[in-house]
Amino acid sequence: MSPYPDESSVNSEDTSYFSDAWENLPWTPWIPFTATKAGFRAIPRAPGLYRIRPSGKKFLMFIGQTKRTLHQRLNELRHTLRRGELMPWNDPLTEAPALWAWQDAEGFSYECSAALLDVSQSNRQGMQSFLLYRYRQDYGESPLCNFGRFHPRYRKSTDRKENKRGGKLEGDHLDNPAGGPGLPPLTVTGAPGDRDWMGLAWSGRRPFDGETITTMPQGAGLYLLFERDTGDLIYIGQSADCAQRLWSHAMKLLEEKDMLVSYYIEEKPVLPHNLKERENDLVGNYFEMYWEMPDYPFGKFR
Question: Taking a C-beta distance cutoff of 8 angstroms, is the pair 197, 289 a contact?
Answer without folding.
Answer: no
